[in-house]
User: What shape does this take?
Amino acid sequence: QVQLVESGGGLVQAGGSLRLSCAASGRAFSSYVVGWFRQAPGKEREFVARTSRSGTSTDYADSVKGRFTISRDNGKNTVYLQMNSLKIEDTAVYYCAARVIGGEYGYWGQGTQVTVSS
Assistant: This one.
């Protein structure tokens, strides 16, 4: 099992940057694929980005491509989401989640709020 804790959210002006962290505890963190998701008020949760177990492969939602970067440091059991050129529509609660290969995202953090103001 793995436990996930997000941090780094906050209030930022449009065009600004934030870096979210997802710290994991438990065994064999490097065996998990980790993703970031977000949920805005009144909307369904949506995929943001994903990193492979080694961090060499990543995927992004079209809405964040070129602005967000996901990375991981398996030595520190942490996954990061660097968010640049933030837009008001990026406002949401951001969650990290983990899954094993071939499985569903079964481990979730509690979320961190990101608010982008004009």
